[in-house]
Design brief:
Chain B: InterPro entries: P-loop_NTPase (IPR027417), Rad50/SbcC_AAA (IPR038729). The complex is a heterodimer of chains A (372) and B (893). With 372 residues, chain A is of the alpha/beta class. Chain A contains 9 helices and 16 strands. In chain B, helix 8 crosses helix 14 (638-669).
């Protein structure tokens, strides 16, 4: 028994914050569906199990609803099993009812009830669809008591959290909790999970597939799907992560005291994320620079922005004008005195951080104006 | 620089050579009338120093003397840097230029043009005075009102001079550019008040944020509605499943049918019981009727016997009552006779009493007639005595005014006599002892000494020896005495008396009579008092009336029956009356008793009559009843009928008791009322529950259809996607607003810091100018301060703490301030080795007398530092200006 385990497609996500790049990101999510289909065909997988959050919201447009279905339709030899997640929970009048009403291809099946479903090859799928965004019960618990034919491969399909994943304990009871030992308790051969956007193994038979196309920097660098093989009931599964995404997402965090290291850092980036034209890069830069160095950094960032698919910068750089900066503004006179006053203000501990930041910005503006 | 010489020829109205004489250091004053050529000389001086001699500008052409083909020649002599310069230039024709220094030619032609500028430290190539301090300090006619606005070159010169002291402070051109750029950038996004500006990026970002917020709020509201609909739909679906449960519906219907069957059985049992109970009621009615008929006949039989007994009793009572009534009638007749006799006796007694009373009254009236007659006689006598006294008083009375008239006449007579005596000769006769007895005066013997006034002729006889007659002189006093005497006589006659003494005596008598009269009147009042105050009759009349009334009463008594015989005494009469009244009272009591007895007897007689009649009526009534009862059932048929009715009643009772037993048995089989009510309620509840379920199911189906329609419609709108998209748009807009506001805050800080620094720098920069200007300004406007901008232009004047924009000052003040600024700048230059003469052409035209005097002080003060040349046509106004007096004179040499 071989199948592809995937989750968290979140079709319909807007990506407005990326401006004119948004459409490309939206298109990449649908491309990922096709990539998963191609992967299934290539790996001889008869089924693709989507462990929830197929859609980003529970009220998408019909076009959004149809778009992934139409991609799946093209892979008639693959059975697609869609499970409602917390983003697209199954409720009356919800997306799944609408989807069914719109008409599904024969190779696409929606699992909106926890009834076991035979997948063929002696395997039975035990789905645990979410019927609300925040479910306080562990819906996989019923898998413990769900009987399947003797010798059948039991595959669980669920969406939720097996751990808080670093969420503070004092944030209340986590929703959609799943017992990490569910696979063992329910005698599952494999528990396919969704919700966590990073590919992650929870146990010998429990995996998060990760998202096939990341949408944020704290998920994973590239979209992934899992090719799972189970020889027979009780046999350990083989799980192989495979990249299916279009864009790479990376974050680089560093401090600067000067701009001498920028070239080397750029070379590392280009090596690690070739081609950088598909790189969605976030730079978190701290430290302190002179104004002239800051100008150099700005130019470097500008060039980098032109190279990568998208660049987001979070600068917490302090401006520390040196003597040369001040002399470039003026040797004497009003401008020099203004620069001195702004510099002093930027370093005045009696002021708030915001006020000091504005003084730095003003000093930088003065520098740009005076040296233009 | 000090201009020491100026000569022109072929220039304007100066066809021939003319020289300005008197030029030197300090204040130079050229007073000349209009069209004397002052401005022409000023223009010639300017062009000679700053224009190239070969130039043909319009300004130079204006130098030309009209109608003459002469070169325009100008000579300017000046001192500079300790050297004496002489510049000679010819314009328009035979052009040329020479510059001599200390008498030696140092440049010729174009070189001379430029050598002058070098000598004056002007930039090479300078072709107009405007480019140098001259442009500032040489003020042409009509320009003195405009504020001193140095050209760029002049500012540069001034700046150089000042900055030599205070250094580079303003940031120069870059500072200006930075400030302008920052201000321009801010102006793109915000208004002058710092508000978002329409068309700016800030406003646009704020608008985008507001729009996103509004859209998001709207979407979330719609989503909330969708969420509510979904929740409601889920609830309805669960409700529909519950309502449509077939097992529950079947169980409900089964329960209802069982209840209905039980209710039908109960109704039938009730109906049977009711039917049996109806029969019981009918049987009971028949029994009542039979029993009643039997009892009625028994009652009739008993009533006939009782009536017969009553009739016998009543017959006896009627006979007894008739006898009693007859006896009572006899008693009444007897008592009525006795009563009539007593009435007669009482009438006689009443008459006796009446006569006794009349006699008593008549006796009393006779006594009163006698008493009144006596008093009336006395009163009449008193009235007559009083009348007599009154008559006597009238006869002898002398009025007081008559006595007064007598006394007055006597006084007048005495006065007349006194006056006559006073005027009469006084005669004193002293009789010697020998002549005693022999001397008579007015027929009276004189013994001793006697003084006599000879009022009338006085005869003194000395015995018979002689008769001496003293005759007084004729006088009016005699006539007066006669008149007084006549008046006295008249008064006495009028009073009816012979003398005043008589008159007094008669008044005393009258007083005595009046006293006597009052005594009599008092006695009369006692005897015959006036009846009442205000009465019309007096006391006597009242007595007469009382007497008449008493007499009338007496007469009436007599006429009423008294026989006219003498009446017995009063006591006898009273006793007779009392006895008569006692006899009468006894008869009255007896009469009343008899009357009461008669009335009682009459009542009793009527009562006996009524009782008799009542007994007779009762008897008749009983006899009628008996006849009626016998008519119903005569005596001969009553026994048989009684036996038959008793048998009917017994049979009816047996039927009733049998029916009652059966009805009780059936009623016991009927369910109780409570259980029937409960059963009915159950049937009703189950029926309503089934109906309600069906009705509710239909409603829920409709609601589900509606909700599904709404959810489907809204679900297809992609609300979730749009909400997420709008939330990101809002976040983006907020980020953008924050970035713009941060940028604007930085620009504002930069602008404010720049402005503040420039203001501080400007104060330092303009300090020397203000210092130079202050003595001149205070001479004119004590305590005033002028605000200058960095271009040395004056912005405002502050006097007494109040700032006034320069443009709002009066013409005269503006001109004065403008000249002061120029003088200050000139002084600044002069004190720093860059002295330039100040030339004022026809200035101070709007200054009043006071101000112009103070301006003269200012000019004199300024002239201590630099040369001052003042051209004016106002000779009289400038008489007190002082300084060098310049003249324009033809110069043949």
């Amino acid at each position: 028994m071989r199948f592809v385990h995937t989750a968290d497609w979140q079709i319909g996500k807007s990506f407005v914050r990326f401006g004119d790049k948004a459409e490309a990101f939206r298109a990449a999510r649908l491309d990922a569906v096709e990539a998963i289909g191609r992967l299934a065909v290539a790996e001889g997988c008869g089924h693709v199990l989507v462990a929830g959050d197929v859609f980003d919201s529970d009220s998408p447009t019909n076009v959004t609803l149809r778009a992934p279905i139409e991609r799946m339709r093209g892979f008639a030899g693959v059975g697609w099993h869609l499970l409602p997640g917390n983003h697209d929970a199954h409720r009356p009048g919800g997306p799944w009812e609408r989807l069914v009403a719109l008409g599904l291809p024969a190779n696409v099946r929606v699992h909106v009830s926890p009834e076991p479903v035979a997948l063929g090859d002696g395997a039975v799928l035990l789905p645990a669809p979410l019927t609300s965004r925040h479910e306080t019960r562990d819906l996989t618990a019923r898998m413990d008591d769900t009987a399947t034919p003797e010798g059948a491969i039991r595959i669980g399909l669920a969406h939720g959290a097996v751990t808080r994943f670093g969420t503070p304990d004092d944030e209340g009871e986590a929703a959609n909790q799943i017992d990490p030992g569910r696979a063992e308790k329910a005698g599952l051969d494999y528990l396919a999970l969704g919700d966590w956007h990073r590919t992650r193994q929870i146990g010998p038979r429990t995996w998060y597939a990760g998202t096939p196309e990341p949408d944020r920097h704290d998920s994973q660098p590239v979209g992934t799907a899992l090719v799972v093989g189970i020889a027979q009931a009780g046999a350990p599964p083989t799980v192989e992560p495979r990249p299916v995404g279009t864009y790479r997402w990376a974050t680089d965090t560093f401090d600067l005291a000067d701009t001498d290291t920028l070239a080397a850092r750029e070379a590392v980036l280009r090596n690690a994320h070739d081609p950088v034209s598909k790189l969605v890069l976030r730079l978190k830069i701290g430290g302190a620079l002179s104004i002239a160095a800051r100008r150099t950094l700005d130019e470097w960032l500008e060039r980098l922005q032109a190279s990568v698919f998208h660049l987001a910068t979070a600068l917490s750089l302090a401006i520390r004008p040196d003597a040369a900066d001040l002399e470039r503004i003026d040797f004497d006179g009003v401008l020099r005195r203004v620069a001195e006053r702004l510099k002093a203000r930027a370093a005045d501990p009696a002021l708030t951080a915001a006020e000091r930041q504005i003084a730095e910005d003003a000093l930088l503006a003065l520098y740009l104006e005076a040296t233009a | 620089m000090i201009i020491t010489h100026l000569a022109v020829s072929g220039v304007g109205r100066f066809r021939t050579r003319h020289v300005v004489r008197g030029l030197g250091a300090g204040l130079n004053l050229l007073c000349a009338p209009n069209e004397a050529g002052k401005s022409t000389l000023f223009r010639a001086l300017t062009l000679a120093l700053f224009a190239r001699h070969g130039s043909k500008t319009e300004e130079i052409r204006r130098l030309e003397t009209l109608g003459a083909e002469l070169p325009a020649c100008v000579e300017v002599g000046f001192q500079r840097g300790g050297a004496e310069f002489l510049l000679k230039k010819s314009f328009l024709r035979a052009t040329g230029a020479k510059l001599l220094k200390n008498g030696a030619l140092v440049a010729d032609g174009r070189a001379a043009d430029e050598a002058v500028w070098t000598a004056l430290d002007l930039s090479p190539g300078t072709s107009a005075a405007e480019e140098a301090a001259f442009g500032l300090l040489w003020v042409r006619q009509g320009q003195s009102f405009t504020p001193a606005t140095p050209s760029d070159g002049t500012r540069a010169l001034l700046s150089r001079v000042i900055e030599a002291e205070v250094g580079e402070v303003l940031g120069g051109e870059r500072g200006e550019r930075v400030l302008k750029s920052v201000t321009d950038q801010l102006a793109l996004d915000e208004t002058a008040r710092g508000q978002p500006k329409v068309g700016g990026a800030w406003k646009a970002a704020l608008d985008r944020r507001a729009e996103a917020e509004a859209t998001l709020a709207s979407l979330r509201a719609t989503l909330a509605g969708l969420e509510a609909d979904r929740t409601a739909l889920a609830d309805k679906l669960r409700e529909r499943d519950m309502l449509a449960d077939p097992a529950e519906i079947a169980r409900q219907k089964s329960d209802r049918d069982a209840a209905l069957a039980e209710r039908d059985q109960s109704v039938k049992a009730e109906q049977a019981a009711q039917q049996a109970e109806t029969e019981v009621a009918q049987r009971e009615l028949a029994l009542d009727r039979a029993r009643k008929s039997h009892e009625e006949l028994i009652g009739l039989d008993q009533r006939i016997a009782k009536t017969r007994d009553k009739i016998a009793t009543l017959t006896r009572r009627v006979a007894e009552q008739a006898d009693a009534r007859a006896a009572q009638a006899a008693r009444l007749a007897t008592q009525e006779q006795a009563f009539a006799a007593l009435a007669k006796e009482l009438a006689a007694a009443e008459r006796t009493v009446d006569r006794a009373r009349r006699q008593e009254i008549a006796a009393r009236e006779a006594e009163r007639v006698a008493e009144l007659s006596t008093r009336l006689g006395q009163a009449r006598e008193l009235r007559e005595a009083i009348a007599r006294i009154r008559h006597l008083i009238t006869t002898i009375a002398v009025p007081a005014d008559a006595i007064q008239a007598i006394e007055t006449a006597m006084q007048a007579l005495d006065a007349a006599r006194a006056r006559a005596e006073a005027k009469a000769p006084r005669v004193r006769i002293t009789v010697a002892p020998a002549g005693r007895g022999r001397i008579t005066c007015a027929d009276a013997t004189v013994d001793g000494t006697r003084d006599v006034a000879a009022v009338t002729p006085l005869t003194i006889a000395v015995g018979d020896l002689a008769t001496i007659e003293v005759v007084p002189a004729a006088s009016d006093d005699d006539a007066a005495i006669d008149a007084a005497r006549q008046a006295l006589d008249t008064a006495l006659r009028t009073a009816g008396v012979a003398s005043l003494a008589e008159a007094h005596e008669r008044r005393a008598k009258v007083a005595d009579l009046q006293t006597e009269g009052r005594g009599l009147a008092a006695e009369l009042a006692a005897i015959a008092p006036v009846p009442a105050k205000g009465a019309k009759e007096d006391g006597i009349a009242a007595l007469e009336r009382a007497l008449a009334e008493a007499q009338a009463s007496l007469d009436a008594g007599v006429a009423a029956g008294l026989d006219g015989t003498a009446l017995p005494d009063r006591d006898a009469l009273v006793r007779a009356r009392v006895e008569a009244e006692a006899a009468r009272d006894r008869l009255r009591r007896a009469h009343a008793d008899a009357q009461s007895a008669v009335l009682a007897a009459r009542s009793e007689t009527e009562a006996e009559t009524l009782r008799l009649q009542a007994a007779q009526l009762d008897l008749a009534d009983q006899q009628g009843k008996l006849a009626e009862d016998l008519a119903i059932c005569p005596d001969d048929r009553r026994v048989d009928r009684l036996a038959r009715l008793a048998a009917d009643a017994a049979q009816a009772r047996a039927g009733f008791e049998a029916a009652a037993a059966r009805a009780k048995e059936l009623r016991a089989a009927v369910p109780t009322a409570d259980s029937r009510v409960a059963l009915e309620a159950r049937v009703k509840r189950l029926t309503q529950a089934i109906d309600g379920r069906e009705k509710r199911l239909a409603e829920v189906e409709r609601e589900i259809a509606n909700l599904q329609g709404r959810v489907a419609t809204r679900g297809g709108e992609g609300l979730g996607e749009r909400e997420a998209e709008t939330a990101e748009t809002l976040a983006l807009a907020e980020t953008e607003v924050a970035a713009i506001e941060r940028r604007l805050a930085a620009l504002r800080l930069l602008r404010d810091t720049l402005t503040e620094s420039r203001r501080a720098a400007r104060d330092s920069y303009l300090g020397p100018v203000k210092t130079a200007m202050r003595p001149y300004l205070h001479a004119l406007f004590p305590g005033a301060e002028a605000a200058l901008d960095t271009g040395f232009s004056i912005d405002a004047l502050t006097r007494a703490g109040a700032g006034e924009p320069f443009t709002q000052l009066s013409d005269g003040t503006r001109e004065q301030v403008a000249i002061i600024v120029r003088l200050a700048l000139g002084r600044l230059l002069a004190e720093r080795g860059q002295a330039v003469p100040v030339v004022l052409d026809d200035s101070l035209v709007f200054s009043d007398d006071d101000r112009i005097e103070r301006m003269f002080d200012v000019l004199t003060q300024a002239a201590e530092k630099q040369q001052m040349i003042v051209l004016t046509c106002r000779s009289r106004a400038f008489l007190n200006c002082g300084g060098r007096a310049l003249t324009i004179e033809p110069d043949e040499g």
